[in-house]
Amino acid sequence: QVQVVESGGGLVQPGGSLRLSCAVSGGSFSNFDMGWFRQAPGKEREFVAAIIRSGSGPYYVDSVKGRFTISRDNAKNTVYLQMNSLKSEDTAVYYCAAGPRVGSVWYFYPSSYDYWGQGTQVTVSS
Length: 126
Known about the structure:
The chain is mainly β. The protein has strands spanning 3-7, 10-12, 18-25, 33-39, 46-51, 59-60, 68-73, 78-83, 92-99, 115-116, 120-124. It contains no helices and 11 strands.
């Protein structure tokens, strides 16, 4: 059974940085496409970033381009989201998602992913 576990969230001041980690177990990590989503209170889940094995990405939502970086370490079965220059509007629960057949077209669509973590809270506030 595939398990996805996020970590690294917390409280940070505007302009600060955080690195989220997502560990995947119970499956062949190197065969998964990986994505990060977020959900703020009262809002729908939003695509943040994805790293697709067969695509030309990685891919980012426009609001985080130049500030966030997604990366993966297949030896550690882990994907990361480095978040710099954080803003109050980045406050949300961040979710990691995995799927074997996400692809480079529908990477922004939550239903493209088969496995999800429980989420980690990121709060950007002074």
